[in-house]
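agent> Task received from the user: take the single chain below, predict its 3D structure, and emit structure tokens. No templates, no multimer pairing.
agent> Plan: (1) validate residues, (2) run structure prediction, (3) serialize to tokens, (4) report one or two observations.
agent> Step 1 OK, no nonstandard residues flagged.
tool_call: predict_structure(input=
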Amino acid sequence: MNFSHLQPNLHNVKRTAAGITARCPAHSDHRNSLSITDGGDKLLLKCHAGCTSESVCNALGISLSDLFADKPSITGKRRAEVVATYDYANESGQLEYQIRRDDQKSFKVWHRKNDKWVLGLNGQRRVLYRLEEVIAAETVYVVEGEKDADNMAANGFVATCNPFGAGKWRTDYNESLRDKIVIIIPDNDEPGQRHGLEVANHLNGIAKEIVIIELPGVKDITEYFEAGNTPDDLIEIVARAETWKPVPPPPKPLTAFTIKSANECVRDANKRPRARKVYGELVMEGELTIIFGSTGTGKSTFAVQVGDRAASGISDEHFSVETGPLRVLYVDFELSDRQFAARYSIKGDDGFNCDSYVWSENFFRAEIDSKNYDPSNYESLSTYMAEQIQVAVEMYKAQLLIVDNITWLKEGTETAKDALPLMKSLKRLKDAHELTVIALAHTPKRDAARALSINDLQGSMMLGNFADAVTAIGQSAKDKSVRYIKQIKVRTEEKQFDADNVAVFQNIKPDSFLKFDFLRFGYEREHLNTLTDAGRDEVTQQAKVYAQKGFSQRKIAAELGISLGAVNKYLRS
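)
tool_result: status=success, residues=573
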């Protein structure tokens, strides 16, 4: 056998220097896990997902011996000769494939294509042996091989088997035996006994009745009849046998949850040190924080500033770093290295960057490697990036991970559903490695007269559920160089920066470091445009929605960034 024999039965075949790669037929493969190379006198199979060569051969409908080259061996051993053929037809009697047994007890499967026999299944539907008879019968005997099934038929019984022997029963076969009395006669060896139980478990709840019988002193049903036993003898054994009942499985171990009494939970939690501030109350240790804002508000600038302070362990005014220096990994989907360098350098008279900012050795930046970037074998871009980020976190032993930004992952839509797999992965990664995570996200175009709320985050209900904290950055409508930061959702601490106490900054670059320079605390409404009639109607409607959900007027005011008096007025209108 050579590559050309196998290629028609494989999918997504790609040539390599050593041979070919393809989707592995033995498992649900979304990437080319199977490699096939020329070993000289035989083909070498390797499934990198862990499937055995035997299971791959079974899925292809060939045996391990078929992998050897089609030429006499060095011992001069003759080629095997076919001694029996077994046709597998569907319910209508149409041939699906044929299994051929040779005199060396090897089995090969063939199918018809363009009026020629072709080796392998090549996508042919797998069916039970003698299926037409099975469909018409009320009682069916299940044996291990085609020879046994034929011998049963010769003695007046309706019998069947699955192709490729013990351990190869598929769920696809179950429906053919629905509501029938099924008598299983396994071979009298360990693989046969396991196969019999496997078939019984598959048919449990599908077949009308299941009986498993043992034939004393013989290997299989063929030997049973060859020993002089009659069909009546077999019927008598079946009559004495009891209906098979499944053994209840042992209770499954609890692995997904840790369960304690509420008191024990509180005691254990109180024994652990409180969460420390990574950047004031805005970023807490061990939490996943989403920071969102419109394009141009400076999300990346602020995130890099947080990462820089965490890496150095140096606090800013009003925003302390309690953790000490952390190893920071900043995953930058936004800027190239040149753009990043320009942002944190002073440009000289000659137009080139000079006096660049000196970073802590704890600060690492990652960007897309266009030469090696290849998500083609993954279910989604998010799945690919989640795996790559995990590898980077483990490789660089990161303690603070910043992803800038998750909205980059949207694939042709205006929703954030494409980022959900990544958010789930970031949450798992955070818990597994005790990480602090910051994920940046965009907000769609919004009315500058309205206060920032969770509704401004793309995919707010979905993404917000996976975050411990959500923080928004807004641009002042009164001064375009001024930004304000507002906490939308918190879990660990009380909100410090709500609509009545936003942190106000100026986005400046006094030297080589672009940063948010703290100005004061203030009211969000100081930075909003005056509401238009349409905008006021929208806020009124949202206030009434919150009221219907049971929000207090104070909470509605905080959510919408308006005064208590305005809330009262809107609810009465």
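agent> Step 4: summary for the user.
The chain has four domains: 3-67, 82-229, 271-530, 531-573.
agent> Done.
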